[in-house]
Amino acid sequence: MCGIFGVMDRRRQMMDGSGIRQALSMMNERGSGEGAGYVAYGIYPEYQDCYALHVFFDNAHDGRAVVDAMLEAWGTIEHDEAIPTYDQPNLRATCTTPWRYFFVPDPSLAPGSASPERDVITNLVMQINTGVPGAQVVSSGMNVGVFKASGWPEDVANFYRIEDYEGYLWLAHNRYTTNNPGRWEQPDPFNLHDWSVVENGKVTSYGTNRRYIESFGYTCSLETDSELITYVIDLLVRRHGLDIDLAIRAIAPPYWKDIDMMPEAEADLNRALRLAYGSAAMNGPYTVLAANPDMMVGFTDRGKLRPMVVGECGDRLYIASEEAAIRAMEPGVESITMPAAGEPVIGRVAP
Amino acid sequence: MNNNIGSIPLRYRVTIDRDRCMECERCIENCSYGVFRRDGDRILINSRKCTACHRCLAYCPRDAISLEEYPCDYRNHPVWTRQTREDIYNQARTGKIILAGMGSVSNLPVIFDHLMLDASQVTTPPTDPLREPVELRTYLGKKPSRLELRRNPGGDVELATPLAPNLMLETPIMLGHMSYGAISLNAQISMARAAKETGTYMGTGEGGLHAGLYPYQDRMIVQVASGRFGVNIDYLERGAAIEIKLGQGAKPGIGGHLTGEKVSKDVSRTRMIPEGSDAISPAPHHDIYSTEDLSQLVRSIKEATEWKKPVFAKIAAVNNTAENVAAVARASVDAVVIDGFRGGTGAAPKVFRDHVGIPLEVAIASADRELSLQGLRNEVSLIACGSIRESADVVKAIALGADAVYIGTAALVAMGCRVCGNCYQGLCPWGIATQRPDLVQRLDPDVASKQVANLIRAWTMEITELMGAAGINSIESLRGNRDRLRGYMLDENLLRVLDVKSVGA
Amino acid sequence: MAKSLTIDAKDMHYTPLNQQIREALANGAREVTVNGVLGQRFIGSGLQGDATITINGVPGGDLAMFMSGPTIIVHGNADHAPGNTMDSGKVVIHGSAGDAVAHSMRGGTIFVRDNIGYRGGIHMKQYEEKRPILVVGGAARTFLGEYMAGGLLIVLDLNETMDARGIGSGIHGGEIIIRGDVDDASLASGAKKVPLTDEDRARIAPVIREFAGEFGLDPEPLINADYTRIVPASARPFAGKYTWE
């Protein structure tokens, strides 16, 4: 389901959100006007050492006091404030207040972890999203933020004045709604600290993947594919130490028939990935765009049931559902390609 | 015999009462399966060929023929039933997928039979349909969710909201999609005439539109299925509405397959494929892999027909029907057809027919609930189908949230079908599921169309009576009216899903 | 009304755009040029007649769907499924196209100068004089000619970048002709390779000439090149799969 768009500048040159909004709106035929979202990396340089927590508070509950207390127990709140918003008559109304915290977790609370701060953040996000009524953490990384709501992409962008934010890497999502049209947290992007994900499609292996990922302490509270994919990537890359290309191979593995034809060592590796991560493999139609502070990756299911178009222009890498979206932002795009099924497109930001 | 299994016991045994038989040979003439033949002064019987189609019984002038099912017992066993054993023999011999004809035979409870209808007594009076109007007129298509009105200088109210194209039905019963190829042209013509006579509509199925049906095209809903057989701009423009077939209740998730033998010259013309070639309908539409692709197909069809015709989409009733329906409702679709797991078919893999899908009653109720919840109920009409057997089923389906129903098997039965389930053999002696000219001509559209029209009229009258008894004089007051249903011996979960109270509550 | 017309489609929705094209044709226009096209779907959907429509830009999905008669020339790439269920006429794409090009196409001609995506020519079918033709100058991707039931599909692979597998999966009619060799592992079950005979070559020569003419290529080397011809192993690919109850 849906239309997706991503752009990355390899030299970290900043782009404000206006071009991304234009690109996403170009794909309005792919959406239903009830959900859209943006995520941008590099938007909070003044708090770049803090984890930026974007939280939706439902005004009917007193979620904020609970979250304040939890954060103070797990670290230090450097600053918090309402995310500036500007009323849009066409947004689907809710009683949601988008809030942001700039937070430093206490690493001593996750002893023995290779990445204690992220473990603390992961735990906090799971606890808040499943246990605090009226509070949903929608992004939780450093120097990154998710902006989403129920409406058309342009209305959501105007609600947050997305052009006021400057990032070097953006993902965006135009949602075709099938459930929960009123929940602002429902559209992609989904984010957990480093990783953000937008998806076009719907995995048929959801039940298997969810059971698998929840055995590692993640909790799927939104029941969206992007939530699941974010957790799977976090597990495979951060906790199991796979390189991103191998993590994607585990998620979208080659057919057995193709593995059988590979040279022995390669076949062994691919067989091992399928044996170890069979429950993490995702089936069904999808194109996934994922990002962390250092890279943007795009890949499709192994049967290529969803579109993915890649554009390049100078330092910029674009990945989108439609070429028209790329051209809406970059009319002079230098090359347009369509990668093969399951073959990841990986763009890395210069260090 | 090249196996170690031998022959399996007879399914049917046909016998002739020799005292009554006058050897007129009508049984030989009528049986297209070759059960009977004359040998000297005797009529011989090969029961193994019998399908229980009853054609011989129906045309024996002396009632001399009788038929017995399963004349030979196996050792009775509750787990290893006759059917499981015989399927294993079949697959051990062939190594293939078993196909079967017509709808599910699994012996699961029919929820309709556990829903009781209401009637008015003291607190509200019944309506007498003989005296007072009871309206069944039904509009299928998008309804505005609110109206924009203007008052002109003269003080009159003018409507500023444009109305989307709707189909107008005089009765909420339509004739479902059965393609030319799966059934005969005479069967299609009979149903088309009945539709015209009774003010309703009929589906073409995925077989194109034969020129013989052009006179009834304003009563035809033309189907666009995954094989796109017979689909061109002329076809789309002839139909009163266009239906995209995404799934079928008898075999959710898989496509269809008309074997080359059935693609006669005439069938090949309407399907627009070469004579004798297989007509394969893939499992998905290969231009629809996601919901936004569906909206693309719908809008492309609407662009092609200049937004003048309603577009329906048909899905099989499956686990997440509610979400599927909500997705379809956002795709510029005007009506969603939900086909329950008991829906009919010419042929389907048995394992799908008997194991995949959910009951129609549940699917309709949850679709109606989800659409209402998401504020989409006016975006689409809901059409229920899949073994609607009688007028009470129609009333119950509507009370569960449907706007109208399609009937398929019931219409075939009205033309003589005995539900023998051998449609796939192409030898239907009733002239329905066959293309053999001598068999097709047995079905006279002048006669058969009257029978189908009679059935629709009779059900329509019964629906009117049932509504009148409940004090309801307009069908929209029945739609989704769960209050007029009660569940009898249904469990609590199911009652909750159906949003129906228990009897006595 | 003039015999030619130019429409500026910048920021225009596809419905008014199609209305303007239809109206122009109804008024006798023979040539319509549409400039500034970006992402508009369904251009020429269900369009009838014999005019030529030139599109400058990148049209959206389902270009020329159900089209019956006209010629559409695209200067740019096409998106998903151009020529979907097309009846007759011609589409010439000076660029590449997305997945499912010529899906269920029933007649007419599609020429794509560069590459196409997955499932090109899926379920193309023919009936009597209606015989669809798809020619791709560049490479095609996996599942080329899937379910193909008729027509002619030629891939010239001019840049020799073709890496398609599952070719002709479920093919039961028509033919796929690919320049160069195709290894057996790339064929799906149900498809088989046969040599290209002199008669075959004579039959495709006019198609290749027409294609070369559209894009300013020299046709002779293409006509005389080596080709692999792929046809159905059986007209009944799934007949062996089922038994009756």
Helices, strands, pairings?
The complex is a heterotrimer of chains A (351), B (505) and C (245).
Chain A: E1 3-9, E2 15-16, H1 18-25, E3 36-41, E4 51-58, H2 63-74, E5 75-82, E6 96-105, H3 116-131, E7 135-139, E8 144-149, H4 153-160, E9 166-167, E10 169-174, E11 190-192, E12 195-201, H5 206-214, H6 225-239, H7 244-251, H8 256-260, H9 264-277, E13 286-292, E14 295-300, E15 309-313, E16 316-320, H10 323-329, E17 335-337, E18 345-348
Antiparallel strand pairs in A: 1-10, 1-16, 2-9, 3-8, 3-10, 4-6, 4-7, 5-6, 11-12, 12-13, 13-14, 14-18, 15-16, 15-17
Chain B: E1 12-16, H1 26-30, E2 36-39, E3 42-45, H2 55-59, E4 65-69, H3 82-94, E5 97-100, E6 115-117, E7 138-140, E8 149-151, E9 157-159, E10 167-169, E11 173-175, H4 185-198, E12 202-203, E13 220-224, H5 233-238, E14 241-245, E15 256-258, H6 265-271, E16 279-281, H7 291-304, E17 311-316, H8 321-329, E18 335-339, E19 348-349, H9 350-355, H10 360-373, E20 381-385, H11 391-399, E21 404-407, H12 409-414, H13 437-440, H14 445-469, E22 485-487, H15 492-498, E23 501-502
Chain C: E1 4-8, H1 14-26, E2 31-38, E3 52-58, E4 68-75, E5 88-93, E6 109-112, E7 133-136, E8 149-155, E9 173-179, E10 191-194, H2 198-215, H3 219-223, E11 227-232, E12 242-244
Parallel strand pairs in C: 1-2, 2-3, 3-4, 4-5, 5-6, 6-7, 7-8, 8-9
Antiparallel strand pairs in C: 9-11, 10-11
